[in-house]
Design brief:
Elements lengths: L10 H13 L4 H8 L4 H13 L3 E4 L2 H6 L4 E4 L1 H11 L6 H6 L8 H20 L4 E3 L1 H4 L12 E7 L2 E9 L6 H16 L12 E6 L2 H17 L8 E5 H5 L7 E2 L13
Parallel strand pairs: 5-6, 6-7
Antiparallel strand pairs: 1-2, 3-4, 4-5, 7-8
Helix pairs in contact: 9-10
């Protein structure tokens, strides 16, 4: 790929591209948090250079400020092709580049959800530094994830071994039908042996919800769906609220089958 000297990227700029590739959409604050950049102005300048050369774009209008919604940055097809030239087409596939043309027109509710997921994973990584986080673009490269994968796949090494989780952030405006579809898709995937090729235990399911009332609704729906597939003893499911995740206590996860004292992620 031929590029003029003005377009040659420095490592700090490539780091931004790689982070946006991973999360798809991200605010300046979230990017600074991920990259360990303390100076917001420094990141702002780098983003402006990347936008000037067409590697990054942003979604923003004046109404966002009134609603407290930050600008969301994302990679353009040109930015993805630049990463493809670095990492190869096995990691940054042509299909991912083709799909990225929709990023400038997808719904704002979708963008908000992706940014919320990014924020939650940043919080979890601060709580558990060894935690490995895989987003949907990364999961799409492997055959053993569901066709409609979780928001995040988490892997955490603990004293009890390697723990794996499917993690979903349930938006406050998510209709019950969407939640049921998600649960049914998971149960069908596990029931049909979709995870078998990994040779590992089934991942635990984590759902982060807006409030305790939403937790209770999801628990009822989960019991009903799971019983249809005779998987009650095989799949562990935990819930927590957004407010609890943002607090200081890491013991926030409640087992839907054994309500009691909440547990931390490394204690599940």
């Amino acid at each position: 790929m031929k590029m003029d000297k003005r377009s040659v990227l420095k490592q700090g700029q490539i780091d931004i591209l790689e982070t946006l590739y991973k999360y798809r959409f991200g605010s300046r604050q979230l990017l600074a948090d991920s990259l360990g950049i303390k100076s917001g102005s420094n990141l702002f300048e780098k983003l402006n250079v990347l936008m000037k050369h067409g590697f990054v774009a942003r979604r923003y209008d004046k109404s966002y400020k009134l609603r407290g919604v930050p600008a969301a940055y994302y990679l353009t097809p040109k930015g993805l092709r630049q990463l493809q030239s670095i990492h190869g087409s096995e990691r940054v596939t042509d299909a991912i580049i083709k799909a990225s043309y929709r990023d400038k027109v997808v719904s704002q509710s979708f963008v908000n959800h992706v940014v919320d997921v990014y924020s939650c994973t940043n919080k979890l990584q601060h709580q558990y530094p060894p935690l490995k986080v895989f987003l949907r673009r990364e999961m799409a490269l492997y055959s053993y994830f569901p066709a409609n994968p979780p928001d995040v796949f988490l892997s955490l090494k603990t004293n009890g071994g390697l723990q794996r989780f499917f993690f979903d952030v349930v938006s406050k405006d998510a209709p019950p039908s969407a939640i049921n579809r998600r649960l049914v898709n998971y149960m069908e995937f596990f029931d049909e042996g979709g995870w078998d090729e990994t040779g590992s235990d089934l991942p635990k399911l984590l759902f982060l919800l807006e409030n305790p009332a939403a937790e209770n609704r999801l628990r009822r729906a989960t019991h009903a769906v799971r019983s249809r597939f005779d998987l009650d003893d095989e799949i562990e499911i935990y819930t927590a609220t957004t407010e609890s995740l943002l607090g200081e206590d890491s013991a926030i996860w409640s087992n839907i089958d054994e309500p009691g004292e909440p547990l931390s992620l490394d204690g599940l």
